[in-house]
Amino acid sequence: MSEWISVEDRLPISEAEMADHNYLNIEVIIATDSFVSTGYFEAGNTFNFWCEFKDIGEDVTHWMPLPEPPNPHNTGERDGRNRIHARYQ
Fold it and tell me: Which terminus of the chain, N or C, has fewer Cβ atoms within 10 Å?
């Protein structure tokens, strides 16, 4: 699983990543001083670059990407990220 990333170090979407997009919205895991949850990070590049964590109600201090979903067709072999998929019987 990913490590927590401070919002002071990096945000989920950078201005450089918005070069070919007008709007992006991604779901991430967020942490505030009082809770951990999933939330949405939005970024736009219509006139000027802008970004925000959507409808959280508190300042987000850290975030991390969502983990990969489970693969229902596990093969027992290593994937491109060097993870082993178990075989389900």
Answer: C
Distances (CA, A) of 65 to 29, 57, 74, 76: 6, 20, 22, 25
Tens-digit pLDDT profile for residues 73-85:
765 555 555 555 4
pTM: 0.71
* SS3 annotation, 9-59: CCCCCCCHHHCCCCEEEEEEEEECCCCEEEEEEEEEECCCEEEEEECCCCC
**CA gap 27, 50 in Å, rounded:** 17
Q: Are strands 49-54 and 5-6 parallel, antiparallel or unpaired?
A: unpaired
Residue 37, φ and ψ in degrees, nearest 5: -160, 180
